Amino acid sequence: xxxxxxxxxxxxxxxxxxxxxxxxxxxxxxxxxxxxxxxxxxxxxxxxxxxxxxxxxxxxxxxxxxxxxxxxxxxxxxxxxxxxxxxxxxxxxxxxxxxxxxxxxxxxxxxxxxxxxxxxxxxxxxxxxxxxxxxxxxxxxxxxxxxxxxxxxxxxxxxxxxxxxxxxxxxxxxxxxxxxxxxxxxxxxxxxxxxxxxxxxxxxxxxxxxxxxxxxxxxxxxxxxxxxxxxxxxxxxxxxxxxxxxxxxxxxxxxxxxxxxxxxxxxxxxxxxxxxxxxxxxxxxxxxxxxxxxxxxxxxxxxxxxxxxxxxxxxxxxxxxxxxxxxxxxxxxxxxxxxxxxxxxxxxxxxxxxxxxxxxxxxxxxxxxxxxxxxxxxxxxxxxxxxxxxxxxxxxxxxxxxxxxxxxxxxxxxxxxxxxxxxxxxxxxxxxxxxxxxxxxxxxxxxxxxxxxxxxxxxxxxxxxxxxxxxxxxxxxxxxxxxxxxxxxxxxxxxxxxxxxxxxxxxxxxxxxxxxxxxxxxxxxxxxxxxxxxxxxxxxxxxxxxxxxxxxxxxxxxxxxxxxxxxxxxxxxxxxxxxxxxxxxxxxxxxxxxxxxxxxxxxxxxxxxxxxxxxxxxxxxxxxxxxxxxxxxxxxxxxxxxxxxxxxxxxxxxxxxxxxxxxxxxxxxxxxxxxxxxxxxxxxxxxxxxxxxxxxxxxxxxxxxxxxxxxxxxxxxxxxxxxxxxxxxxxxxxxxxxxxxxxxxxxx
Length: 748
Hints:
The chain is mostly helical. It has two domains: about 5-55, no CATH class; about 60-510 and about 580-685, Sodium/glucose cotransporter (Up-down Bundle). It contains 28 helices and five strands.
């Protein structure tokens, strides 16, 4: 009997389709994005140095890859382009610079929630969370989910403050621009650098997802080049045509599909699978797994406990790092800016609570399924366990999916990764284009730029940035950087700007030096803490050592918390400021009169063109002030619940789940994911039901010839569209008689 001491995988690109479905369904073969059927060679190196190779065919042929990347990608693009055309034809929705960047500031809470869920569901959300579950057991999914949900909940308060302080802002960097004659001169240059750091989420995801789904550095051919460069094409198309509104609508579709696939995975594992089929069966297999390979640092070595030393360390790293990737990501500010005033707070609360179920249930299902099935012939690595490299690369979810569902699991994994990557891509294209267009181009190069020129610049940046991230992804591929390493390192690099950036919106006393220098010094201290800890831990500064938990913990914590020391120091040295917020209120919108005149539309009657009266502004500020008070208490309460009240009684008591408790744990997760589907999948349809009915009726009248499109448009303009008055026959409301919509929100 040959004893296997090492298992090395070489993924070799091949144009040959063998057509046979292997007995062992290697999930790496599901990465056929570019359409090349892959041939896998497992190379076993024995203790004596002998090598045995087993060739295994691919479960999915090249048509699946082309179908996903080209078919589905361009299908989304054409669909969103059609939606944009319909909105313009029947609802007089003019694509102005404001509409492109802010979606008219009229988006309701359901769509805001789905956009938040989609934006926060990276490839890492699905794959990294399953990896920590495989490592640490049931605690891993909860640590991941709770440690990344609180940022969205707390950001709701920041979203309200942004809309209250700077109602016409397009990016969060606009509120940090140099302000003259206000007693303060903000230096926003460091924040531009930090603002662009989270922008590499797409290259991280696309690079990592391809590696996690099967490519290795020894892949032959240029398959991955096509993968990286084809994925953004469809996204570029609908983003350029529909702007932020098309992105938000696509986010809703992505979220709906994603939640349905997660529900299928969970019900298969815990209800219908012939390999598992119930929480009880999974529980028994996890108990057996703990006996065979107990988890170091877990209570009783069990996978069924919240008491996990390494899991708790990951929990802290996760919390710290994700503050930077939310609070410094202009994509989340875009969603806040796009929301109508009364819908910003509920939108972010709905989004945060709905998102929690995604990593929690996905990882609890797929991570535990991998642990339960890896000792069976259905699992790809059988009879071996997964290597740490495979776990770090995010292969736990695809391995479990293929073991549970075969080809169906492969397709499902492909779809959810595709949704995650393309959704993040679209969000970041808008985020980056708005930063370049408004924070750089209009501020420093052409302050009097027309709306037409601003749209042109936005389109240019969308294309240029898409090319950049594709190229950068190839660089990450060649560098061999894993998803896990980048995920943990982000906090070290960007988190030092979180507190100073937040204080610019909530504290008038922060002076320019504290705002400008705290992130820079914080970054320096974080890098020192990270690398010194790595050196002391294992005497080396290689990828393995610097990527381990303790060095990452040190770097992340120092990055986030160092401004708590630095800001008071700079305040003592340079004194407190007394900023009056007036210059934020003075941020101006783009001038779209030229576009409106060309289109023959009254700009004042468009969703993005109405200028608020003094009475409307006062009423809006009152609503936002009330929402600000509610958000602070609500988000703090939910944060304490997720971070302390729920997990730590179980952590402190070292409780090991009983079978009934585990069954209840899983049941709550499944109920939660159905609630998420209702909140961000079905609720947006309910909120927009009147507009949908009006639009479908207009299409039917137009196609049947019963009514001319101009007449249809006039009828629609005479009624409220998505909570906004769009009358083409009435004058805008004045200070004495502001119009109220059916939801109680003032019309603009």
